[in-house]
Amino acid sequence: MDINAKYLLMCYCFQNNMTVEDKVREVKKIFPCLSGIYEQDLKILFEGREYLPVIKGVEFATKFSDNGLSYIAITEIANITDMQRKSEVQKALMRICGCIGGFQYKKWGIGGPNDTIKKHLGQYLSEHAKNWIRGEEAGYPRVLEMSGEIVGNAPNESYTVTEITGIRID
After folding, report:
1. CA 163, CA 89: separation in Å to the nearest integer?
2. β-pairing, 54-62 with 159-168?
3. How many angstroms separate the CA atoms of 42 and 35, rounded?
4. pTM (2 decimals)?
5. Which is higher by pLDDT, 40 or 67?
6. How far is CA 96 from CA 6, 32, 37, 100, in A?
């Protein structure tokens, strides 16, 4: 995802002490192109926090020369029952991201973990008491990634474990 869309999502998600109007004003200072219909989209986005389908997962990546592999175990999916409101919020987000520079999404949970990933997946899940969902069970969701934090790796950096958060866009 480009830096513009990432900034907007960070403003959306992590600045809880700001009012909706303050967030709209702050974003418009940085992105003057977000006026008119986009201003309404910003209000929809910032007011609809509970309707944005946040999804969390853990990415396990191996780095063995040319045979690197990564797999995302999905650990949390928002359960939103008001599908009309969810759709409004997602459409507003897509229009805004398109205006300020586009966005890229990833499909989560595609493929299968190799033996190294399975080992570290089991360790992580037992240490953190987390359940997980296979990508196929969640429909290999398309996700706009917002943040990631490396929470484990090997001393020789042959693998990494990253907790990731995104917004489901399908």
Report:
1. 25
2. antiparallel
3. 9
4. 0.76
5. 40
6. 12, 12, 10, 6
Is the pLDDT assigned to residue 157 strictly greater than 70? no
Record the tokens describing residue 120, joined without a space: 């570290």
pLDDT in tens, 24-63: 888 888 888 888 888 999 888 888 777 878 899 999 888 7
Instruction: Find the helix or strand (DSSP H, E) in which 121 lies.
Output: helix 115-128
142 and 107 in contact (C-beta within 8 Å)? yes
Q: What is the largest CA-CA distance in the chain?
A: 52
The pair of structure tokens assigned to 113 is 């973990």
Cβ atoms of 69 and 62 closer than 8 Å: yes
74: which residues sit within 8 A by CB, 6+ positions away?
55, 56, 57, 108, 109, 132, 133, 134, 135, 138, 141
Most confident of 4-8, 20-24, 137-141: 137-141
Contact 59/161 with Cβ under 8 angstroms?
Answer: yes
pLDDT at site 108: 93
Residue 21: pLDDT over 90: no
**What gap in Å lies between CA 138 and CA 95, rounded to an integer?**
25
